User: Fold glucuronokinase from Raphanus sativus.
Amino acid sequence: MDPNPKQASSGDDNKAVLEHRSFARIGFLGNPSDVYFGRTISFTIGNFWATAKLEPSDHLLIKPHPFHDLVRFHSLDNLFYRLKNEGYYGGVRLLMAICKVFRNYCKDNGIHLHERNFTLSYDTNIPRQTGLSGSSAIVSAALSCLLDFYNVRHLIRIEVRPNLILNAEKELGIVAGLQDRVAQVYGGGLVHMDFSKDHMDRVGYGIYTIMDINLLPPLHLIYAENPSDSGKVHSTVRRKWLDGDEFIISSMAEIAKLAEDGRTALLKKDYTKLKELMNRNFDLRRSMFGDECLGAMNIEMVEVARKIGAAAKFTGSGGAVVAFCPDGPSQVKLLEEECKKAGFIVEPVKLLPTRLNNSDLKTISKP
Assistant:
C-alpha cells in the first residue's frame, strides 16, 4: 500500500483526487504457515502493482474496469475464451467489499465518517493467478484511498488494516491468510510476521517486524503466462490440520520455523543457509499438498530453477516462483536460458524500501 498518494487538488481539499498504489507480494519464507498460527517473511516488489483512484462525486459510484470487468464482447466465442482465461470475476466486487468492511469497522469503533460521496476505480498489471496477491493489492490500494478521503488514517492502526483487507476478501469467499495483506499494507520493505495463536487470540493480529530490504540477495521471479488457479490449494491440508493430523501439524510447524531461521540467516547474510531454507520450504509444501494439488506446471517452474543449482519456491500458492542464484550472473544466465526453453517468463525482482509515512508509523503498537 502506498501511503504517499498522488493528489491532484483544485484548491479545495474536498475535491482532491486520491490515487494509491499497492504492490505484488512475494512470500519468501514460512508460507503457508500464516494460516496455521505460524511465522513468515514476505515483501512487496516493484515489478507489478494495482492502483486505486478516488474522486469526489455527487453519487457513490464503483467504476468497472474497461478490461477486467468486461461485459461487452465481440461474439459468443469471444466471451467463452475470455471467461476461460480470465475467469468470471473482476475488481468491482473487491472495491464494494472493502467499502462495506471499512464502513462497518468505523461505525463499530466510533470513528466518524463525513457524508460526502466518491467515485472509486482501479487498475492493475499484476498477472492473474500467479500467487502474487493481485486481489488483495486492489483492496489494499482502495483502503488507502478511503483512509485519506475520510481523514482517518491516524485512527486505524496499521496492524489492523490487513484484517480489514482480509475480511473484505472473506466476504467474497476468498480463502487466504494475513501474510499478503500485511506485506502490502506495510508498503515495501521486508516484514517478519509472527502469527502465534496466543497473540492472535488476544489482539486479533500478529507481531509484525520491519527488516532492512537490503538484507536480501538478488532474486528472480519466474511465472507462466497461463498459470494455475492459486485459490484451491489450501483445501485438503486445512481440513487435515483442523482434524489434528500429526504429519500436517508437524510439517507446518517446521515451515514456520524456516521463517525464524531465515531471519537469522538474513541478518548474518548467510546466503548458503538461505538457499537451503528456500528449498526446504517448497519440499515441505510439496510433501503436504501433493503434486496433483500443486500442479505440474508449478512444479516444473521450481525444477527448472533447481536444475541449474538455484534455490526456488512458490511466491504464494502457485503460479509464480521466486528463485535465488547464489553463484551470480553466470547462473542467472543459465536460469534465463532454461526458462526460455520451458516457456516461462523470468525477470529480476525489483525490491522496494518501506513506504510508510509518519502518520502510519505513529499508529504502530509499541512492543
Q: What stands out?
A: The chain is about 40% helix and 20% strand. Confidence is low (pLDDT under 50) at residues 7-11, 229-234. Residues 6-213 form a domain with the Ribosomal Protein S5; domain 2 fold (CATH 3.30.230.10). The longest helix spans residues 246-268.
